[in-house]
Amino acid sequence: MPAPSLLPPDASLSPRSPGAVVLMLHGGAQHGLQEVGPRSASLWRTGRMRDVLEPRLARHGVATWLLRYAVRGWNEGAGPEPSPVPDARWALAELARAHPGVPVVLLGHSMGGRTSVRVADHPAVVGVVGLAPWLEPGDPVAALAGRHVLLGHGSRDKITSARATRAYVERARPVAASAGFTDLGRLGHYMLARQDTWNRFALDAVLEVLARAGVPHPDRGLDRGPDRTSQE
Description:
Elements: E1 5-7, E2 20-25, H1 41-58, E3 62-68, H2 84-98, E4 104-109, H3 111-119, E5 125-131, E6 148-153, H4 162-172, E7 178-183, H5 195-212
Parallel strand pairs: 2-3, 2-4, 4-5, 5-6, 6-7
Antiparallel strand pairs: 1-3
Helix pairs in contact: 1-5, 2-3
């Protein structure tokens, strides 16, 4: 059987004793029991974002990890929980052992955003940042109790619904410590065009979640440096 794995931070960039950890969760598909291999487009896209964010977050004392799911699908009903949910719970347990007592922000794209809000009740998690998250009307919000949630979505997304993301934020507000929606403008789903916009939102939102959670790190100022990954 395939197994999930954690891609650790670059030792040459990551702080030795991080003040916080970001766990990145990639997208997937509604169904699929195929193993997530190194050629997975969803994993590659999130990995590409990590390449940009990791050195910037490291300057704020934050270590960045990436979860590779065991299989590519959400697979509702195929097991006690959708397939990536136990993978994410496993990853959080591993991070708690690697970085005991260190707060975690979940950063998920598409299915990764949906997975993030399911596992946010882990004691180490202080908040969730979602990028074009795949959210449905019946998705629960209870795991977000006391957490900070920032979700961003583009208006040209034909794969997941910005309207559903807005609605989810409204349902989460009475439960979460804070919940916000950012309209990312005329962006699609796959984070290939205007990568600078996606990267900027992800970076700023992670730092904002940490600030709202009262997590100390070396520099409260947001990194406004140039982004060389733009596809414009």
